# Entry
Amino acid sequence: MARSSTLFVSPAESPIGKRLTAFMSLGFLALVAAGIAAAWMTQRNQVHARWVEHTYRVENTILDLRRLIEEGETTRRGYLLAPDVSILKDAYRKAATALPQRLAALNDLIADNDLQRRNLVTLNQQLVPIVAARARSIALIDGGDIAEARALFRAETASRRMIGVRRTMDRMIGIERVLLAQRDRELQNAIRTFYVMLALTGVLLVLVAAISLAAVLSYTRDLARSRDTLNELNANLETIVQDRTADLTRANEEIQRFAYIVSHDLRSPLVNVMGFTAELEASTQSLTTLIDRADAEAPQLVSEDARLAVREDLPEAIGFIRTSTQKMDRLINAILMLSRQGRRVLSPEPLDMVALMENIRDAMTHRLTEANAEVVIEKPMPDLVSDRFSLDQILSNLVDNAVKYLKPGVPGRIVVRGRRQASRAVIEVVDNGRGIDPRDHSRVFDLFRRSGTQDRPGEGIGLATVRALVFRLGGHIDVSSTLGEGATFRLTLPLTLEPQDRAE
# Structure
């Protein structure tokens, strides 16, 4: 089945691919922005939670401090009224002992707030006379001077001082409540900002998805139209290819018939020329005998020109004619051989390439010995399903060509090796001979073309035959070589000869 040749465009390079890539990048950036916003919001929540906790700790410490101050005043008054109740004294001492600890804890908690620190200084100043008065009252009671302790209590302004302490503490709690409200507003603003960012990200993602979907649907419709057009073109192309194949087949058959007819028709006059040449040669021998007798019996009858024409010119001319007719005969035989190769039906069969090469080497043993050369078969070689006769002809010609063009005085070494390359086999014939000029690499496969010094017999038909056979087997051949460094002929053949090649 014929296949249409189309220019492939990478999806990433097409306009739709570029748009989709841009939209996907935009969506990815939106997701990254949403992730960053979520991380930022999480961090803000953690900071707010820490500050809220700190505010409540400050407030609880202030309330606990207030409770201790109130409890100290209450227990002192109870102790003044009932000095014989020791539990009141113990409660007072416990509250008095815990008060400095709570003040120190509060000082640590508000270390970052200058306003609260000033309030704490004021509170400490307000507590100093209260604590001192309480201590004197307890000391008088413990000394048994209860009346003096009560008189001192009545003379005190403790109630006004406690009012000042309460106001200071209320002010400190108020400050913490303001800070808490401020931080709550900041958190709410951050939450609103986060939701706005999420909403924008969602809208952006929806837009990207909608635009991408529209682009994909448009691209799919274009692909469907292109596929229908391509199917139509393929159908037309199939017909065109079949027509062209039929035309080429007919043309090939006509060329083969023409080559056969021309070579056959050329052979008839060539045979006549060769026959008349033989007759001329026989007549020349008779004339030579006659001239010899005339020279012996009546030399004055034979001129020097006649003597030279019979003894030298005619034999030389007949020799040139014979040499030319022999060369023409070889060329006609070569054309006939090529035309027969084109008409021969290929017969694919499983082939052991190592065994095939060993048979070729054994058949050329005498020739290799005379040329002081060896053929090395590197194992393993890939087995093929192909035409045995064609492969035998190809490899025999290549090895024979390598033996023919070895360097004088250098032992010849011809290496045949093969390997698999995907669904094809690569077979190489490597020699250490004369090599081929790089300028002649392509034309050594042309009919009647030879490279280098023409000091070896041949008509330039071997490599042309090899190329024709390789093409018929669905492969190709090339050569790499440098003058004086040998040559490498490389065959690339299908591992399995396609069925259509069978009935070519």
